[in-house]
Structure formats: C-alpha cells, structure tokens
Amino acid sequence: MYTFDYARPESLKDVATALRKQGEAKLLAGGQSLVQALRLRLAHPPALVDLQAIPELRGIAVANNVVSVGAMTRHAEVAASREIQRAIPALAKLAAGIGDRQVRNQGTIGGSLANADPGADYPAAVLGLGANIVTNKREIPADKFFLGLFETALKPGELIVRVDFPLPLRAGYAKFRNPASRFALVGVFVCDTTSGVRVAVTGAGPCVFRAKRMEKVLAKDFTPQAVEKIVLPAEGLNTDIHAQADYRAHLVTVMAQRAVEAAAKL
Amino acid sequence: MSESLLGQSVRRKEDYRFLTGSGTYTDDVTVPGQLYAFFLRSPHAHARIRAIDTAAAKAAPGVVAVYVGTDLQGKVNGLPCGWLITGIDGQPMKEPVHPPLAQGKVRHVGDQVAMIVAESLNQAKDASELIEVDYEVLPACVDPAQARAPGAPLVHDDVPDNTCYVWGLGDKAATDAAFAQAAHVTTLEYINNRLIPNAIEPRAAVAQYHRGDDSYTLHVTSQNPHVERLLMTAFVLGLPEHKVRVIAPDVGGGFGSKIFLYAEETVLTWAAGQIKRPIKWTAERSESFLADAHGRDHVTKAELALDKHGKFLALRVHTTAGLGAYLSTFASSVPTILYATLLAGQYTTPNIYCEVTSVFTHTAPVDAYRGAGRPEATYVVERIVETAAREMKIDPAEIRRRNFITQFPYQTPVALCYDIGNYEGTLSEAMRVADVPGFEVRRKEAEARGKLRGLGYSAYIEACGLAPSNIAGALGARAGLYEAGEVRVHPTGKVTVFTGSHSHGQGHETTFAQVVAQRLGMSVEDIDVVHGDTGRIAFGMGTYGSRSIAVGGAAIVRALDKVVAKGKKIAAHLLEAAEGDIEFENGEFTVAGTDKKVPFAQVALTAYVPHNYPLDKLEPGLNEMAFYDPTNFTFPAGCHICEVEIDRATGETRIVNFTAVDDFGKIINPMIVEGQVHGGLTQGIGQALLEACVYDKESGQLITGSMMDYALPRADDVPNFKVSTQETPCTHNPLGVKGCGEAGAIGAPAAVINAITAALWPLGVRDIPMPATPQTVWRALQTAPKARSGRA
C-alpha cells in the first residue's frame, strides 16, 4: 500500500467538504475491490474518504411501491431483510449469493454500483428492475447509469446516496459463477412489470446490458421456453480463460430460462 | 491388558494451539533490530538484463542494502538439484546454473532480480520501484510440448533443445514386440495439468546472524529443515553446517512446495551475515503464485496393448515433462523415478516401457506437489485401463479384476517390488459402499432431470515411505532417505520425542505420541513431540512422499526398542533378576512368571539418580536415538469410485458421490487418516475439475496469478466423502504402516475424469482434458457425435 490521507466524515455535508479539500480523493465504501487494489499497489489515491460513519447512507425502507436501499447497506443486510424478501425476493436472493460471507458482511450496494465490475451481481438487479440511483446531486435511471467497463454516469464529487427499486410483478435472477472468482460468468435478471418485461445481463459483456429480444418475447409469453431459442450474438461478449464469447452467449440463454423459472416460482 | 492406543482416534494435541491462535509461524517470529526484505521480480518471461541501476533505491529512506545478481557472484553459488538423472544416452542430465538472483538474464515471470532490505516493508517496496532495470525482452516458450520445436527460444544457452534429459525405464524391445501381438490397442493422449500449490501459509523466512559466535539462525517455512540447512550451507553459501541453525516452526501446509531450497531464504541468510542484522521476508500470495514451485505439467501419449480377453500385454508411455526455468531441488526425480516406476499400477502388465523427455520452459520451476509423479502415473494407467474396458465392452471393474496382481511379493517390470496388497479387497468394498449395482437406477432418474450421470473408478497404487537409501542412491538420489528419532525419557518418566519428520498439518504430535504412549504404557499427554529444529533434533530428512509414519515413526520405534532394552537392564538390577527374565508390558517391568515388578517411571528415575545402579556395566540416563533406513518402499493402494452428474445445458459437473477405500496398512489414528484422505481427495478433485495454471503462450505472463483466476476447490465443490480403510500390514517396517498423505490426490483425478467420460461415452465423447471445466464439457457436448440438444 502507498500512504494516503484518510477522512471519516459523519455527514454528507462533511463528505463534500472532504472532497473539496482533496479533489483526487477516492470514496471508500465496503472496500471489497478498492482495498485489494490498494494492497496490490494498483491504486494510489492521495486520500480516502470513508463513508462508513454516515447514517444517511444506511438502511432499507419500503414505501409507496418502492424499495429504497441506502448506498452503504451491506449485502448481508439486503439478503436478511424481511421487507426485501417480501417485496422483491429475487433481490434478497441475489444479495445472498454475492461473493462469500465476509464479502457480504462488508460489501455495499453503493460500492458495487459505483465500481461497475463487469462480473458484479447488483448491476443486473438495478438495470433489470429499472431502479433509480439517487446521488447527492440528482436521480439517475438505471438505463443511463452503466456506461461501460468500470464506467458509470457518476461525476467527480458525486456519490450514490440510495437506490430506489420499483416493485415488480415478479422477478428472478440466475447466475453461472466463475469457478475461480465466483463473480458472475453470466448472470441474468428478469423482471415482469405492468409496463413490460426487463432482462438485464451481467458478466457476459464489458458492462451490464439489456437483452431486448428476450424482453419482447417474454412480454408475450413469460415462460422459460419462450427464450430457449434466443441466443445472443457472441460478438462483443467477453472472452477469457474461463469462458469464450460463444459459451457466454449460450449461458445467457440458459440463465435467462432459469431466471424466468425462478420468477415464476415466487 | 489395556486397550491399544494404536487405532484410536485420539483428538489432536496440537489443535488447541492452532485453534486458539497460539501457534508460532515464521511470520510470527520477530527479533529486535529486524529489517524487512522485498524482492523485485521479473515482469518478463525471458529477457536479457542490459543494466540495473540501484542508486536511487539505495538512497531511498530506510533502505539498508540492495542486492542484485552481480553482488552475489563468487560469494553465493547456484541452488543445487538433489537428484541426478542419467539419460538413455548415458549422459548426466543438464544442470544449468540456478542463480538465487538473476544474472544476465531473467527466465520466468517472477524470477528474482533484486533484494531490497529496509527498516520497514513499505520502505523496501517503495525503493524497489526506484530500481531501473534495462531489459531486452526476448521471445519465451512456456509450453513443454513446444520446448523442443525447431527455433524454440532457449531457456539456457548451454542446454540445446531445452532438453534436460531423455530418460527411459523398462524393456523397450519386449514392449514393442508385445504390441505386435495385441488383439486390441488403446491409445490416449493427455495433458496432466500444471498446478499451483497454495498452502494457507505463504513461504516466509527470518534470518539472523549472531556476532558472538559467528553463527546463524534461520526460521523458515520448511518441510525438512535439516535438508534445507545441508543444501544451503554445503552447496550454496559455503558456511559450516554447525554454525547454522534452521528452525521450521509451525508451518501452515506444504503439499511439497516447502520441501525445496528456495532463492529467497538463501539470499536472506547471506545478507543477514553481510548486514549483521536480522531480516524478515514473507511472501505475498501473488508471489506464491509466481515463485513457489508448481506441480505436474506433463504431456503424455500412452498406449495399452491387450489380448482379446482384456489381459494387458504391454504399456508404452511417452511423456514430455515441463521443469520450468530452473531445476528445483527434486525436480528431476518427479517425472522419472517417482512416475515411471508406478506404471504397473495394480496390474500384472508384463511389459512396460516409459520414456520421459524433461524440458525447460520460461515458467516457474516445477517440482514435487502432493503425490509427485504418482498422480501422473495413476492418471495414465487408470484412464487408459478404463478406456480400454469401454472400447472392448468389458465392465471396467471386471477388466481390472482380470489383471490384478494377486501374488506377493510382486516384482514389476518397472523396478519396484510390491511387498503386499489386496486390490480385489479394496475394489469390491468400494463397489459395495458406492452401491455400484444401484447406479443404473440413479442414472435413469438423473436423465429424467436432464442430467448425465457417470461412474468412474481409479484403482491406484503409490510408492511411499521414501526410501531405501541404497536403492535411491542407485537411482540418482544425492542424499540418504532414512529418518532419525530420539526418545528422551525424563527423570520423572515423562517423555520428549525428537523426530526428523516435520508436521505441517499432518498431526504428528498426536500420532507419534500414540506410538510412544502405547509402547511405554503412558498417556499421550505425558509425551511431547518436538520437530522442525536442527538445534534440537539430531538429524532428519523431513516430511514428503507420505514417509513420516513409515520412516520417521519406525525410527522412533527403534529408539523405543533401545529404551526398553536399557530399561530391562535397569529393572533386572532393581529386581535382582536375570535380564533375560524381564518382560515389559503396560508400563511395567516384570520378572517373568512372578509378581515382582517395577514401574517404568521408577526405572527412569533410577537411570537419572543411579544410586542403586550397575554403574560398572551401564551408563546412567535414559535417552536413546535411532536412525531408520527402510528396506523397501511402502505401497499404499486402494480404489476410488466417483459418481458425477453433468448439467447438459451448462456443462457443469457436480460430484454427487465419492467413495474411497484405501489400504494404508496399520492405522494409528483413523480420524487423522480420514482428514488426510479428505484433503488429498479435495486436491485431486481440484486438479480434475478446477485447477489450471495458465501462462500466456505469447508473452509468458502468468494469467492465473491470483485466486480470481486460479480456481482452488472450495468446500461446496466437493461432496461428503465416503471414506474407509482396509488393512494389509506393510511387511517390512515395525509398525506395519504405509502412509496416507498423498493417496487422495493420487487416486481422485482419474476417478473423476473416468466418471465424466463414462457419462459422455454414449454420446461419442472419448476423452475430456483436465480440468473438466463447464466450458470444456459443454464444448465436448456441442461437438459430440451423438449429442442431442440439452434442456435448461
């Protein structure tokens, strides 16, 4: 690790002050990616602003058909939340399947979204459910949030405060894990709403994306069989030692079927 | 007579220490004035070092010294190889210099280029970034199959064709002749995938120089501290052996990777003497991936000749083995002596010929890893036997039965002489436990769920208890392979045992205490086992090759024999009887046929307070030691049966049942044995399904350089194992034991792949490479001649 300055503000106002003082500072949420990068000397920010002591960033609330999850809410808290288990069981289940127990006790939804790892689970839920990402500056709809590999619409000085998930009619998530890292090799989140079906795919491409052809057929026929024959073009999908693009494309189809099956069961 | 302690699952004495965080690992050792070392490693697989500028690093805050290869020239020799292999051309193997810090060239990513010593680790790291190395990057070769190709980049300029040796074992002419008579020939080509060991505790060392008596102490993560000291002092540093104490304290796993003398602790020890301050180095996990010795890395073609009844006539094997960039301590013996000698397996195959070409590549050194050569041999034999059975439409269990060795001792055509075994016994018991007759019902039920289900066998054998020194010497070993044991009876009758074996997870402190407690009629609590310190233990060859109980345990038994013999003399004096009339049982010396007796503790006290004692004939004290050199290898063997289900839609394999019935001879502590089997099986399953060390073919970069890409097995990757044992006691050591540490890793890979190929056979798939990842299996299903579309 390189040396860095460290601040632990206790309010959003103090965060803004800390960021004004040190423009190059990095925000530290659960630290599940950033701390590793620091330890490997792959990242060397001059300062860290730790968000763990800010009460406004924590907590889960369900009201007016919206599930709000504070940015610093841990994966384990989402997984264990009775309210979320009732309102959007697929979201609780997704959170319960992130990383391992230690990661879930430390990692946060805000940290995961801001990092936008191509293999992360939460982006699939956020895009699949059509959530709104509420920052200290504005609200960003999920469709406008994820821009590319580790790239989001967040501007310098902007931080996620909470995520608002509209309640779906039904939703399901299925993931095929990378055998080594256990990130999503491919994860598919399907969501049936009054205004149509959304299908979000993580792990397969550089960034989470929607599978529009699948959405169209599922809107007419919300069954696993409906997507059985829809295979995404391999072009543009990720290739690495664990899975080449054509295998990932195939897995998107299989995981989509399983996600629909899971949604139908709930 | 009290119940025997041998065969009891005594709870592990050492676990209190480990579970309460009270162990002392090398990184826990901190001495006053200690400095920290950091190694700058090569970012290139192959490059010429044009120049190194360390001036800025030397001037950086906290830096005490910076060393590069040229600083060591003439002072620190290359690292030696402990086993000489002689090629079929009669020439000794090529032994290119293995400099502890790169000299002139770097030869793999992670090769040590410089050592920076500073007041803090962070200062050493900061300084390392100020070192400027001018590299001329050269093309690299990381694939053993390509190492001898025309124009392949040479790892060492003085080793043509990157070839260390071409070695052979067996009768080539007779084998070829047998193939000409064969009714059926099965041919398989396979890669035995390269593995990265990953013990929980990374390698570490703390080197101290003591001005007062010009001596050194080295704490190091070693499986064999005496061997470490011998190699380091006699071959590399030229220090007198009595001036160097090597301590391997608690060590968190080794799996072979901590047998070897590595560059880091060698340079550290030398530098501690230069700077005259203690220095600590602890590897980070990424360094372990880059610079620990890896395992396996074979490319093999095997052919099995059979008669029309499925009797094996001959086996012919050609293997190219990757050694990495340098010869690690026992690298040369692993793909030869520890591999080809096991190719008879459990079978009477009369003719076997194996030729091994070992090559250098621009990768980390490859050496012994749990099983070391024997998993590779078992994979060859058990895959080809099972494939032959399927090709000839003979039941895989039946073909094995037709070929089992049943008469012992049995001289194989590949040098070994098996003393005893019961292969039918372990096979039939494994079949019973695994419910083989019920498999077809389970397969059909799985099919209805869209799953392919398969069952595969692996009837393995290993040669353990390394090794008779004279035989090992004749085969090229440059060391003896005996073990030392010392039993120190204290005046109060309590006992400290000193063993040259080293426990780094195996539970020796309990198992060895049971052996002593049983013999002396004491409780295991009254016995402490000391290991891992050249300053306290007379000598030792360490722990590897499942040798600890068979060789180290036997040495302790021999020392116990001497204790009891001397105790009888003392007892005879105390009881005023003839020595020949004294018997020793349950902790008491008795005069045969009388009620006259004296307890062991009183004899011990008398030995140390020799007032009423035959001082004219007998020395006081009760402290005996023995060296034990085995007369043969031991031959643990058994049968593993694996049952898998494959998800047709994703290609994912789940192990649904795994049965292991092992014959380890006599068993001292069944719980510890079961734990060893569980660990071994998990590593074997890891090799079969998950683990693959991948270097980029172009750049030579290690792609699987972290847990993000290198898939170690997790608890939920393995099933609840069904493990049991059968017993044919070893005929040539005093405990009748064979060893159990490696069996799981040796037998499991073939069982898993045989199960997968059994499931895929009806679709026309004949082989699946390791690791059988979901993608690999899915691709095989895509191209399978008779595959139908899967369902989700």
Spatial order of strands in the largest sheet of chain A: 4-5-10-6-7
Number of discrete helical segments of chain B: 19
The CATH superfamily of the domain at 170-265 in chain A is known as: CO dehydrogenase flavoprotein, C-terminal domain
Q: Compute the gyration radius of chain A: what is it?
A: 18 Å
End-to-end Cα distance of chain B, whole Å, is 63 Å
Mean pLDDT of chain B: 97
Per DSSP, what share of the residues of chain B sits in E-state strands of 2 or more residues?
15-25%
The best one-word shape of chain A is: globular
Instruction: Please state the second-level CATH architecture of the domain at 170-265 in chain A.
Output: 2-Layer Sandwich
Q: Beta fraction of the residues of chain A?
A: 15-25%
The CATH architecture classification of the largest domain in chain B is 2-Layer Sandwich
The CATH class assignment of the largest domain in chain B is Alpha Beta
Q: Extract low-pLDDT stretches of chain B.
A: none
Note the topology.
The complex is a heterodimer of chains A (266) and B (792).
Chain A lengths: L4 E3 L4 H10 L4 E3 L5 H6 L7 E4 L9 E4 L2 E5 L4 H6 L1 H6 L1 H8 L4 H6 L2 H7 L6 H8 L2 E4 L3 E3 H4 E3 L2 E2 L7 E7 L3 E8 L6 E10 L2 E7 L6 E2 L1 H9 L3 H4 L17 H21 L1
Parallel strand pairs in A: 1-3, 2-3
Antiparallel strand pairs in A: 4-5, 5-10, 6-7, 6-10, 8-9, 11-12, 12-13, 13-14
Chain B lengths: L14 H5 L15 E7 L5 E7 L1 H4 L4 E6 H4 L32 E2 L5 E7 L2 H8 L3 E6 L25 E8 L1 H9 L3 E9 L11 E7 L4 E6 L4 H13 L6 E4 L15 H13 L3 E4 L2 H7 L6 E9 L5 E11 L28 E9 L14 H18 L4 H8 L6 E2 L5 E2 L4 H11 L5 H10 L2 E11 L7 H6 L8 E7 L5 E5 L8 H13 L6 E5 L16 H28 L6 E4 L2 E4 L5 E3 H9 L14 E6 L8 E11 L5 E11 L6 H21 L31 E5 L16 H18 L13 H10 L9
Parallel strand pairs in B: 1-12, 10-11, 14-15, 20-21, 27-28
Antiparallel strand pairs in B: 1-5, 2-4, 2-6, 3-5, 7-15, 8-13, 9-10, 9-12, 13-14, 16-17, 18-26, 19-20, 19-25, 22-23, 23-24, 26-27
